[in-house]
Amino acid sequence: MQTILDNPRITVIRPQGYLNAVNAVKLERELGAAFNKNNNTIVLLNLEKVDFIDSAGLMALVSGVRKANVLEQRLCFCSVAPSHRIIFELTGLDKVFEIFDAEKIFNS
User: Fold this and answer.
1) Where would a tag sit more exposed on the chain, N or C end, judged by fewer CB atoms within 10 A?
2) Nearest 5°: CA angle at 75, between 44 and 100?
3) Residue pLDDT tens, the chain, 108 long
4) Residue 6 within a domain
């Protein structure tokens, strides 16, 4: 039996401030560009410096997960503030989103 090691390529996106109607389209474009990189299999969205997420920002995240699934890639989230995690839990998105505690898990 042959062992195959698959080392996925990871792109990290670190938005800052608000994820809202003003910049949701920009985030979707950034996610799309990250998914279209050659040999990219994981896009990690580090939400550590995100202060606020409105419904448009949330829809951009959902859209990103859908696009990742269609392309057979992964969109993962890390460093999610407790206030954002509550939103994910109330909407049931915590069961859809892959959420990790910190970015460093991908650097090991």
Assistant:
1) N
2) 60
3) 444 445 568 889 999 999 999 999 999 999 999 998 877 789 999 999 999 999 999 999 999 999 999 999 999 999 999 999 999 999 999 999 999 998 876 665
4) no
Nearest to 74 by CA among 36, 101, 35, 102: 35
DSSP-based three-state secondary structure for 88: helix
In a domain, 92, yes or no: yes
Structural domain count of the chain: 1
| Residue partners of 81: CB distance under 8 A and separation at least 6 | 47, 48, 50
pTM for the model stands at: 0.86
